[in-house]
Design goal:
Layout lengths: L1 H48 L3 E6 L7 H4 L2 E7 L2 H4 L9 E3 L4 E2 L4 E4 L8 E4 L13 E7 L5 E2 L4 E11 L2 E4 L5 E7 L6 E7 L3
Antiparallel strand pairs: 1-2, 1-7, 2-3, 2-4, 5-9, 6-7, 7-8, 9-10, 9-11, 11-12
Length: 198
């Protein structure tokens, strides 16, 4: 019996690092799927409704829980003329398309990506996130034709990490993270893995 327990212990010790790496990749891929789905949904809604549409992230500088802020995304759009002038939505120019979507636990976006160019948006009708009000988001904007505005590529990095101040330290270092690049003219997402520089 002791020999069997010892063999199981050795096998567990040998396979645990591989399993942890596998779970890390799965978590990162889950986050990529959530984020890429939100981007594609925003692009298609811009084309469908003919109004600017946004992929929004809670502003980590103004939202108290930095881990939640860097682990969440929402899709919303500007209201059409008939919605805006109906008199019922005069104070809220945006319509929420999705609820707050969350990446797997321990997976975050990196707001310090070099060309993560965003627009700051303040609105009163963002849904609460983890019980707290969200009044300000940073957002990627698609125009009514599904193109990025401004017309420059947007890069979003996502990976397993720990929150350090308003940013993320990906762990361990160097570690793979996944990079999503949104093409300006088509709004399409390209996904590829990178390795953090030492």
């Amino acid at each position: 019996m002791l020999v069997v327990i010892a063999i199981i212990g050795v096998i567990t010790a040998l396979t645990l690092p591989s399993l942890q790496g596998l779970f890390g990749v799965a978590g990162r891929r889950g986050g990529v799927n959530v984020l890429a789905g939100a981007v594609e949904q925003a692009r298609l809604l811009a084309l469908q409704h003919g109004v600017p549409t946004y992929v929004g992230f809670p502003d980590p500088g103004s939202f108290a829980d930095k881990e939640v802020a860097l682990n969440s995304v929402i899709v919303f759009r500007e209201q059409r003329d008939e919605e805006r002038f109906s008199g019922t939505n005069s104070t809220n120019p945006y319509t929420m398309v999705s609820r707050w979507l969350r990446y797997p636990r321990g997976v975050f976006i990196d707001p310090e990506a070099p060309d993560f160019k965003t627009t700051n948006i303040t609105a009163a009708n963002f849904p609460k996130l983890s019980g707290a009000a969200v009044g300000n988001v940073v957002a990627i904007r698609f125009d009514r034709y599904g193109k990025l505005k401004p017309e420059t590529p947007v890069t979003i990095r996502i990976g397993e990490g720990v929150v350090d101040g308003a940013g993320v330290t990906f762990r361990p270092n160097p570690e793979h993270y996944t990079q999503l690049r949104i093409q300006p003219l088509t709004g399409r997402v390209k996904i590829f893995d990178q390795v953090l520089e030492q």
